[in-house]
């Protein structure tokens, strides 16, 4: 363990409150300036060096508790080496990792940093993240109820979030900048029913409304399929709130669309959290109410499992963020995604969305490749570059993404570069 390393591991009972590749940053197209920003905020108000924020569903989950620790205990695991190289080549300052099994005490993330990220992979420059945040996930946590209404209680589908064991498909935030540990907020236990106007699923076999879950089930049913985290990161004098989550896939259900509706409301949580006047109902795991202040800087990151135009998510689920007045969509793209959609065909040929925005390589028959992963900065941050790590096949680095069965993940790393205000807020 490096002496400077600080992993904030929160126990269940204690809550602390294509990439650049070889291409220089100047060659990456900067997103257009938002109309309300043109002519405003002079350049000198922003820090000189951009902050790179990334999200990566790296599929480093395992099918049994303890297996991830075993796999990361040496530097020999092929998949871990591949996803580590992608992270090294991205060289983000702050990155959210989805589908990284939660292990109490931060053991797994420490092993991943020491044995993989801080060791050159295939000639890539090692990357050091002295700060990390990990916390429990709702995945695999037994509810004690028959949540899927199949007549039996038990198994991953009756957990508060689908998982074969507690912590499967968890999350990690890694940072080169200090995490403000005393200000971290988690929302693992927030109840779905406590969201005003929640899209609670309806049992189509009964005349009653919104009755898929019984009153007893709703009294304990948590909104987050994993968790929602507000992880403040200190960048110079300014604080950037990293808002991390991984909503449930809007599939693997029936006509009641319980997962699609939950996905919608997991996304809505952040839309309300960053909206002054709408977050009063939100209570974190320490009992504090409310969301962000009007001038707070933030970046929403994660595999949101929702595409603006295609796939199975509830209509306009992700638009709750993309169209939000406090959020900027820099629309990261890659040439590799366009090539993949053309070569794979299938459902991709009928998609409404531009394949350049795709971030996930899903089954060709259905749903096809989708935009599922997002890095969405607040309007208080100034974007200067963005992209998706999805090289075309002629690029040697395409070996890192590959084709099914993937050597790394079916998702691609997404990054956005922003300039952060100089002043503390």
Task: Write a structural description.
- There is one protein chain.
- The protein has 425 residues and is an alpha+beta fold.
- It has helices at 67-72, 78-90, 107-117, 215-218, 258-273, 319-322, 335-344; strands at residues 6-9, 51-60, 94-100, 131-134, 171-175, 185-186, 228-235, 238-245, 297-303, 373-377, 382-388, 414-419.
- The protein has one domain: Deoxyribonuclease I, Chain A (4-Layer Sandwich), CATH 3.60.10.10.
- It is built from seven helices and twelve strands.
- The strands form two sheets. The chain has a seven-stranded mixed β-sheet, covered by helices on one side.
- The two termini are 34 Å apart.
- InterPro entries: Endo/exonu/phosph_ase_sf, Endo/exonuclease/phosphatase, TAT_signal.
- Residues 1-29 form the signal peptide.
- This is Endonuclease/exonuclease/phosphatase domain-containing protein.
- Keywords: Signal.
